[in-house]
Structure formats: structure tokens, C-alpha cells
Design brief:
3 domains, three-stranded antiparallel β-sheet, 13 helices, globular, mainly alpha, Muramoyl-pentapeptide Carboxypeptidase, domain 1, 3% strand
Length: 271
């Protein structure tokens, strides 16, 4: 199965579609960005793709054990075992591909392996594909490979199907945290983080989608813009400055129209 696409970042149409799925309007974007920033901070750093343009994933070996009745525990404890031992983010696709190979050998198909990873900017588990609006994990992953619009829509579908959209609108951060992360949510202060991020985002500190797209392009082109957050900080300014020099554009560190268009064209993504 092909996991690498062109890494298309989130568009305004994709954001509005996800908001509509949740029964929210364009002015309610802080709700959805709050979930993205808090829930996915440790895995995706705010962006749904790796630098190699494969969706961000986290493989969960205890889920694979459950989905395959523990048949691979003895020979492959790194991909089939108790909770924990996630390993480095760079190792996640190696684990997924090993699980896929085990499934293929046992003639199980690839669904058990895909079901056992969380996917994209919303880190939706493969086994939740039906909540996300897909008939199988394969279908969900194929959509997520195409871009962040599908990734965010899957997250929104999951939130809606599990009654979490209502809790968001009520700003019931404790209720949301308990339903989304389980009874141990308080250990990581998940509810507190949600409230703090929402307050910041609702005050006007929302990601700028054009800046975010430019950061993605810079990342893919090797210019290290820092976190993909839609904010032009020092690292993004330095990356823009270096790109403009290399591309033969006028010197500067601002994201003007020609720089934006050139970035997107060279990175092979839609502006």
C-alpha cells in the first residue's frame, strides 16, 4: 500500500467542511484548533504529514495484539504486546510495515495492522474508521494520504459520532477530556490544556492558513521553518529569507505573494 502522497496541507474549504460536520460555523474555528493542538502535540506537532509526505502515525502494539488474538506475541513482541513501548516516531512505519507483513503471511489482510495505528493530524485510530466516515481502515488511510482536508474531516466525524462536538460547544473541557482520553485524563492535565489553548485561540491567535501552507512548503524543501503553526516566528522568517535567496527572489523575510506562489510550486502543493 502506498503511504506517500504530496502532503497537501489544510485548505480553508477543508477547515470549513470539518466545522460544518461538527455543527459549527467559520467563527468557531478555535474549537477545532484547540483539539488539534492539544491532542496531537506529541505526535504530529500540528501537521498531519511527516517530511517524507507520509501521514503521521503512532503504532499501538496492544491494539495489534487484540486485533490478531495475540498470535504474534512470541515472535514479534515489538509490534504485538501490552500497552507501551511506542518507540521513536521515526520507527512507527517500520512497525506498521512489520505488522502488515505478519498479517499478509497469516492471510489476514492488512486491516488489523492499519486498525492498530492512529492517523493524521487528528490521530484517529484505524479501528475508528466507521466513526470517521469510512467503510474500512484502508479507505480511511487512502483518503488521509491525499491531504489534511480528509484528515481533519475524519477527526470531525469521530468527534460528532461520539457526542464530543456538543461538549466542545459547551466548553465542557473536563467532560471532553474524560470522554476523549479516558478516566486518567487528569494525569496530563488534559482538561486544563484544552481550556488554556481555547482561551488563547479564541482571543485571535488562530493559525493563518496561508502562512501554515508556506511553512509546509518550506519543510518539504528542507528549510526547517519550525513548528507548523501558521505563525511567522523567528525560524519561519529565517527559512523564508534563505528560500528567497536560493530562489532568486528579492531579499527579505516576509511572505509576499510571489514568494508564496513560488514556494507552493516548488514544493508541489496547491496554494
Amino acid at each position: 500500500m502506498k503511504f506517500a502522497g504530496n502532503g497537501q496541507p489544510l485548505t480553508r474549504a477543508g477547515l470549513n467542511k470539518a466545522l460544518a460536520l461538527l455543527g459549527l460555523g467559520p467563527n468557531d474555528a478555535p474549537y477545532i484548533w484547540t483539539v488539534v493542538e492539544v491532542e496531537t502535540a506529541g505526535v504530529t506537532q500540528g501537521f498531519g504529514f511527516r517530511v517524507d509526505r507520509r501521514p503521521q502515525i503512532l503504532f499501538e502494539r496492544h491494539i495489534f495484539r487484540k486485533r490478531t488474538d495475540g498470535r504474534f506475541d512470541g515472535e514479534a513482541p515489538d509490534v504485538s504486546g501490552p500497552p507501551g513501548s511506542y518507540g521513536l516516531l521515526a520507527e512507527q512505519y517500520n512497525k506498521l510495515e512489520k505488522a502488515m507483513a505478519l498479517c499478509a503471511r497469516a492471510k489476514l489482510g492488512i486491516e488489523p495492522a492499519l486498525n492498530s495505528a492512529s492517523w493524521g493530524m487528528g490521530q484517529v485510530m484505524g479501528f475508528n474508521h466507521d466513526f470517521a466516515g469510512f467503510k474500512s481502515a484502508v479507505k480511511m488511510v487512502q483518503a488521509m494520504v491525499r491531504g489534511e482536508d480528509a484528515q481533519l474531516a475524519a477527526m470531525a466525524g469521530f468527534l460528532k459520532a461520539n457526542g464530543l462536538a456538543t461538549l466542545l460547544q459547551r466548553k465542557d473541557w473536563t467532560g471532553f477530556a474524560k470522554r476523549y482520553n479516558g478516566p486518567g485524563y487528569w494525569r496530563n492535565h488534559y482538561d486544563v490544556k484544552l481550556a488554556e489553548h481555547y482561551q488563547r485561540l479564541a482571543s485571535g491567535s488562530l493559525p493563518n492558513l496561508e502562512m501554515r501552507t508556506a511553512q509546509v512548503a518550506l519543510l518539504f524543501l528542507g528549510y526547517a521553518p519550525g513548528k507548523i503553526d501558521g505563525v511567522i516566528g523567528p525560524r519561519t522568517r529565517a527559512a523564508i529569507r534563505n528560500f528567497r535567496i536560493a530562489a532568486g527572489l528579492p531579499a527579505g523575510e516576509e511572505l509576499d505573494g510571489p514568494t508564496y506562489q513560488t514556494l507552493c510550486r516548488k514544493a508541489g502543493i496547491r496554494p
